[in-house]
Amino acid sequence: MIPVSLFNLVLSLSAFQSYVVMGSVRDQAGQAVGGVRVSVTDESFQSIRNLFVDNSGHFTIRGLVSGRYTFRIETTGTAFEEQIQSLELSAIRIRSGSSETVPLDFVLKPKR
Description:
The protein is mainly beta. It has one helix spanning 4-14, and strands at residues 18-27, 37-42, 47-52, 58-64, 67-74, 83-89, 99-108. The chain is 10% helix and 48% strand. The protein is elongated and about 45 Å long.
């Protein structure tokens, strides 16, 4: 027999929804910018992920849960300014055990 509290935990986990953020990084001419770093922090300023954009200017971050996140494009050693965008992930409709894809695009400006 399964205790009630364990049964409730199993039901809660089965209703869990995650997000996949698929992003791109381009310059103002529309050319892909690869090799820059993407850092993701949550609303408590805790580091969630750090990764590099591929040569085609794309990045993918899987497994994010509902919440507010800050995405920072770190451009150290490049001719571009750093950029920051905030994104709030929240389910309009919970689909059990599924993930929702969210686009996030950056257009980098040259350093002055």
